[in-house]
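Quick question: what would this complex look like in 3D?
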Amino acid sequence: MSRIVIDEERCKGCLLCAQVCPKAIIAASSRFNAKGYKVAEVLEAEKEKCTGCAACAQMCPDVAIKVWRSVKSKAKEND
Amino acid sequence: MSSIPEIKEELVFDRPKVLADVPSHYCPGCQHGVIHRMVAECLEEFGLVEKTIAVSSIGCSVFLYNYILVDTVEAPHGRAPAVATGVKRARTDAFVFAYQGDGDLASIGLAEIMHAANRGERISVVFVNNTVYGMTGGQMAPTTMIGQKTTTCPAGRCAEREGGPMRMAELIASLDGVAYSARVAVNSIKNMAQAKRALRRTFETQIKGEGFGFVEFLATCPTNWRVSPVAANERVAKEMIPGFPLGVYKDAAKED
């Protein structure tokens, strides 16, 4: 499963990541970070839709998002 | 359940190492951060980190040296291209780039940028146009658009009184010493890919000694435009790009 990790202490809650996400699975959370910004999060129910496209990470002005993309194992491809 | 495939994952996006791992002072949604990241990525991709001397300007991007971990000279307001000229002439082996905003480059620093470009100095200039003076509270800049409200033109910029916005990429492209001049935006993934290509080409003109390289980034200033970051990003496509058309205005290598 592909996934993203948002560094919540770096997030400023601008939500440009949510605007650009092709699967629309990022939204504002109800949490605030130490600086008082309402941070973005991946919706728990939708997190499996992440394709690891990294659009959110490219868009993030604070470079607060890391992206992992799943790689199918070779054994699986040979099946 | 022996057929469960082994799932591996790879890190496909992380911050470039030369981009300091510290919080930035920029406002939420400010695209200086995206442009800093692209500059850092290009420096790494070309293997320039060890031989780069950056020249930072006055404005919100004044703290460039805190974020891009290369040797940096802080230039007086508007004088970054003049300082970069000196750095490059003294250290011809170094890669020298200036990073300036529109209040700095197109207003107080207009003489310096025009003459550095006209002389064809072997430097690169990254120009960030957000149509206002960001750091000082959103006053009208030479690049402010007709009808745009700022603290010094509260009824909107009037063409008869204040003239129209200056289109720097076109102005720079008209000078003989310039090898490359382009305007790009970072408001969408597609435009970001174009922006990255233009920035790489700008740096390449200096590496190959072709002449002066210039790239103008259209960027947002949600705080001084007094809109949300998402609305500011939408304004780039709706209002800025029609007034500041994207494209490559000069590429000397392709014209030969």
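Answer marked as accepted. The mean pLDDT of chain B is 95.
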